[in-house]
Amino acid sequence: MKDQQVVRRFATTLASCLFTAALALNGSAQMPFYGNYYLHDPGTMIRDGNAYYIFGDGQGISGITSTDLRNWSATSPAFPGEPPAWTTNNISGFTGYFWAPDVAYFNGRYNLYYACSQWGTINSAIGLVTSPSLVSPVWTDQGKVIESNYPSTTNTDLTAYNCIDPGILVDSNGTVWMSFGSYSDGILIMQLDPATGKRVTSASPIYRVSNNGPYFFSNTEEGSCLYQHGGYYYLFVNFGGCCAGVKSTHNIRVGRSASVTGPYCDKRRHQHDQWRQHNHNL
Question: Model-level pTM?
Fold first, then answer.
């Protein structure tokens, strides 16, 4: 597997992620960063050759790249022209501004997952575009991975969850998993077929692993991240309200599980669904 490094979307801008990385490298003070390093909803940082890449929100899917983790420049959009026809056909009002992408390398290619959505609804979908290289990308859209709508349409897979914010884990045993969901009824995990990058079958199980709302559409979790380390799986979630300046209540919470499908518990063994009663922030 290609060398890759994980820096996940635990904040709404890349600057906070880079700040953390700088502290780790320098030990005490932030190193300066240069160029075009702003990125909203950054996903996993991944390496191809001598360059690092991170993708985030933007028209056609935004991205930035660096060879030294300090000097950053913008990449070309994965979709430089019109968005894939299925996105605008399936999601009313969608015009090509993609949300919260995440990338992983498996099956000999870079798999870039993206979300398209109608604001304020669960009319959303996660899609997949692939390229054999990031240095010299040739992007091929692979179409829909999963879609949510309410009310249901002919394309609907889920009617009670919001299919945005994909987070990809390539397990050490070779399986591939995706966490997703936001601001509806919780965070979900489903297995992906490594050969296609999509759901194993249309009937394969989907696991709800976190929900902080007492009733439908009251959940305030988003931007989930799956991570594997030391024989355990870790689920990070953004918890609370964002995008309101100093009135935002966003914080990061984490649970650990011996199984990728949960249950995920904090250090006091409270499961994710109990965190609305127990304020255990990261």
Answer: 0.88
